[in-house]
Write a structure and sequence with these properties.
alpha/beta, Alpha-Beta Plaits, Rossmann fold, 2 domains
Length: 294
């Protein structure tokens, strides 16, 4: 079963209140971890010690509306939450299978994903060499795999691409290997930006082929293709932004969406885009569309 989690970095004095807020907003569990490698020695009688800098993680069912859960938690907390990130937890069975067998993945007629330590099974094909341990996005999860299958079917020659929520960089790098002129990578996680840059280097791409940015630093450009493998809630919220960054006639590929969430996400984009038939794998879907209206 897929899960979502919210991660919050908090000072000790706010941790208990934040824990209560997450539980009230629907979290099935909340864990507290040291975020600064600070030892805690044996407490005194009646003490419940915490670290000075705490990482708070709330676990939610994947069908949760992240925007609504965040709002509920903020209301209960009595203020905006400290800086936080939502993330999709990789299906553990898929992840273990990848690490156990170290196998390459064929994504269509032309495109392969290969562990960086393995010789490609078909060297004459388009082989994306990836370190799966760097960040989310290995190709094994249905959300990423469906995007890679779509990429395999497209012509990216001389096109400008945006990979919004780039993670490991897998989607944007694949388009570069298949002829894209330039890719902009965007992610809220600095570690993802580092992973994307490293994976681009691993694939012997020019250093300026895929510049990466935090959302607040992303240049205002119009892409021929917009890729966004994130989560349903953020995708719906980002609809005006992603639409504005996509050219008329440009294509969009959205993933990270459960089947039960597809219509909600489509409704957020239908003002600007004409949708193709929905693609399904297990409980997940991929949405693709062409921008036809401003």
């Amino acid at each position: 079963m897929p899960w979502l989690q919210i991660n919050i970095i908090s000072p000790r004095k706010l941790a208990e209140k934040l824990e209560d807020a997450l539980l009230e907003s629907g979290a099935v569990s909340v864990t507290l971890q040291d975020n600064a490698d600070q030892p805690i020695f044996e407490p005194g009688l009646g003490e419940t010690p915490l670290w000075d800098n705490v990482r708070i993680t709330g676990l939610y069912d994947a069908e949760v509306d992240t925007a609504a859960a965040t709002k509920i938690a903020s209301n209960i907390f009595g203020a905006d939450l400290p800086p936080f990130t939502w993330e999709l937890l990789e299906d553990k069975d898929w992840e273990r299978e990848w690490m156990k067998n170290f196998h390459a993945i064929r994504c269509g007629e032309r495109l392969w994903i290969c562990p960086s330590w393995q010789t490609p099974p078909e060297p004459d094909k388009v082989n994306l060499m990836l370190d799966p341990g760097l960040a989310f996005g290995t190709g094994t999860h249905p959300t990423t795999f469906m995007c890679m299958q779509w990429i395999d079917q497209q012509n990216f020659t001389d096109l400008d691409i945006i990979d919004y929520g780039c993670g490991s960089g897998i989607l944007g790098i694949a388009t570069l290997l298949m002829g894209a002129k330039k890719v902009i990578g965007v992610d809220i996680d600095p570690q993802a930006l580092l992973a994307t840059t490293e994976n681009a280097r691993r694939n012997k791409l020019p250093i300026d082929a895929m510049p990466v940015y935090l959302p607040c630093d992303c240049p205002k450009i119009n892409a021929d293709v917009m890729l966004a493998n994130i989560l349903a809630g953020p995708l719906a919220q980002l609809a005006p932004t992603l639409s504005e960054m996509t050219k008329i006639g440009g294509k969009i590929c959205l993933s990270g969406i459960l089947a039960v969430q597809a219509e909600t996400v489509k409704a957020a984009y239908v003002r600007w885009f004409d949708f193709d038939p929905v693609t399904h794998q297990e409980e997940w879907v991929r949405l693709t569309a062409t921008k036809s209206r401003l």
